[in-house]
Batch of 3 targets.
Target 1
Amino acid sequence: MNEQRIFPGVLLIGFGLYFFLHQSAFTWVKPYLGWPALLLITGLAFLAQGFKGDGNGLVPGIVLAGFGLHFYVVNYLGWWANDTGVFLLIIAVGFLLQHQQTGRGLLNGILFLVLAAVMLFYGTVKQWLGPIGSFWQFWPLILIVVGGYFLFVQKNSGPARKKT
């Protein structure tokens, strides 16, 4: 199968089913036909492309499908967190899956995973630190310094660039 036909094929079938179900007499499915379903369908199309192709659609596929799924389950599962950390965790899963398939994106996946853990367990970590927890308020500055290091200090370890 031509890899460039996978994404539009899955997307059109998914949207066709979505609109068919909107017009159908199946009333039990109507509550599930909101805008999160469109995110989920688009994400599934990217995932199909990513798994059958070179893996480039995996991150957007996980992010879109994960966000769409999140907006459904947050209303039905009382234990499901509705926090910024959940979105970062979904992005981390996308990069880690991409790394598993292609060998790219491990650092990004770990970075998002650590940030998700910090966001999801912020209150608990602050309690664990006790009296030194007052320094915890400065953790965003650590992110800024490390980001600056990656942008401005770290040497380019890629192929040599020609000077023009």
Target 2
Amino acid sequence: MPHDISTEDPQFKLTCLRHSAAHLMAHAIQKLWPDAVFAFGPVVENGFYYDFQCSHSITPEDFKAIE
């Protein structure tokens, strides 16, 4: 059974937010670089990350387009 997002547990709400943000970031990257292949993207203590591979090397200059 899915968790109830209406819970008052702030840590659970933060985990849900980070999980959703990871998916949004992956979607943005896929839109910008369609050859991107995603492997693993967990929520971690201070945010989230996604391991992926594509023909473009992401640099800080790309962050605005990803946002």
Target 3
Amino acid sequence: MERVLIVEDEQLAADKLAMLLEVISPQFKVVGVLGSVSAAVSWMSNNEADLIFLDINLSDDISFNIFEQVVVE
């Protein structure tokens, strides 16, 4: 099972991606859908995902700034 995190501030796009992942493979399990850098930092500080889909421009910052605040291994 691949745990997938979606970081996307447009709900329609996030929903469509989650649906497409489900169609592609039952092995993908969406464990979170987040809409901001701050929410992603908070979530990633306490949880793990195997695969992360990021929208670059989020409502509160650029998504790459997540990785300045959280260590991902």
